[in-house]
Amino acid sequence: MQSKKWWQNSVIYQIYPKSFKDTNHDGIGDINGVIEKLDYLKELGIDVIWLNPVFCSPMDDNGYDISDYMDIAPEYGTMNDMDRLIAEAKKREISIIMDLVLNHTSDEHPWFIESRKSKDNKKRDWYIWRDPKTDGSAPNNWRSKFGGSAWEYDERSGQYYLHVFSKKQPDLNWDNPEVREALYEMIHFWLKKGIAGFRLDAITFIKKSDMMDDFPSDSSDGLSPVDIGTLNQPGLLEHLHELKKKAFNQDIFTVAEAPGVLARDLPDYVGDNGVFDMLFEFGHVDIDLDKDGKWYKPLDRPLSGLKKVISESQEVINQIGWSPLYIENHDLPRSINHFLGQHVDGPIPAKLLATFYMLLKGTPFIYQGQELGMTNVNFPSIEYYNDIASIGQYKQAVEEGYSEEEALKTIWRRSRDNGRTPMHWDNGNNAGFSEHEPWLSINPNYQTINVQNNLTDSNSVFHYYRQLIQLRKNNEVLLHGSYDNLMPDDKDLWTYTRSLGNEKIIVILNFSDKTVPLHLPSPININETPLLIGNYSAENNEPMETNLLRPFEARVFQLKSEN
Ligand code: NOJ
């Protein structure tokens, strides 16, 4: 049994700095904007901020292409601003965790600039260089995550370098001990500044396969997903254990973005013998991914997939480790449209989703704007999009024969820019985000969905999140109680309990847009049981009927001991 840790009863708020709040009027959010809004975050009740990358970067992938790990991108501010953010957050008992991008750097990082100078440069082996095939083409047919070959040719030295992501994100060679030592040194630099831990980016990609052969292609471009030779390769865990020993050897918190880890392998990654405190799993956010893992298709009834995947993960967490709970981040569409449909909006469905995931076992992450019920945006053409992945997907879809209209529709549903449009602070100019035209267009619905309206309306999504956070903090059973899925086959309802000793809480969720009957399995009885929280407020309430759940209704009860 794992001992209890501070981060288990924390709530983490994720900030995408570029879109959070601009204070120097250049249309780009900044660190001072985060400082300005700390009191807002305190009011929400969060304990930790996860700050997406703020390091120097040419911003090809919005900061995930780092050109200096130990300095701040000028558009976000200075190191003094960062130090002030850490100190100001601390005054409010908020800790900061930062993004750690260890798989790749920018091609403008001095290490890569050196490495590409010549074949015999001292830093040549810091990245992954290979000779062309005899016909001059790329060493193999791997397709990068953002589309196109994962290899980029370098004229000067006549070799190719590997990039799992964009060609401006060359992959580091983790088999070189000097690379690893340089990264550990950088990690200690940040820890000395008093940050509380890290979110590790794409960490299961750091070890590459020794065999660099072609793989069977899955498409007309002749390429094959880069994952096959770069994700979860043998030898990965050895690198991770060294990272833990040499860089995470103090009381910090780590959460890893670790695609490709199977539930049965979780004990190698989390828990007392694992490497990280938590791992982001992808099953629930990828339920709309087709069987080949290539295109996202709309799902008629996402509930059954969602329930299955989450329940399986919660059952593992009942036994071992701990889980980050999340339904949104900077790589995902807005949850309300992702899980409930492209045309759904409004506070009730937003609160349903909040209830569903915030009361599971684990540490909840709230992505900026999620606490307002922000929705997807449908930009009129691909030119409005900034995200490198969306632009790559659009291009690939059109090349594969989809019409521009169909390709755009996929982007509407799945673009990472859905979650990256600027934060809505009020209904004024540029949604109160900036006095300058923002780097990415604002979602037109900011007039109604914004912080100002949410703060003044006591029935708002924001206030509901606050209440959920308090409910978690005041009920040990919601922190450490075990999870049970009560009606796994129900097509509309998700009903689960959390139990600890004699305490039991039941969470009842109607994922459909219709009123549906509720028949709880005996002996559970909620008659005359007071509601702990529900998403239909007193005002829009016809009296609650025990055996009927209204569209998207969520109700939570503390069960009496006989249940
Ligand atoms: C995962 C990050 O979340 C994403 O935004 C980024 O594009 C890739 N890793 C590459 O660093």
TrEMBL record:
Molecular function as annotated in GO: alpha-amylase activity
SUPFAM superfamilies per the UniProt record, alphabetical: (Trans)glycosidases, Glycosyl hydrolase domain
GO CC annotations on file: cytoplasm
GO biological process, one term: oligosaccharide catabolic process
InterPro entries in UniProt: GH, GH13_cat_dom, Glyco_hydro_b, O16G_dom_2
Domain of life: Bacteria
Protein family: Belongs to the glycosyl hydrolase 13 family.
NCBIfam families in the record: PRK10933.1
Name the UniProt record assigns to this protein: Alpha-glucosidase
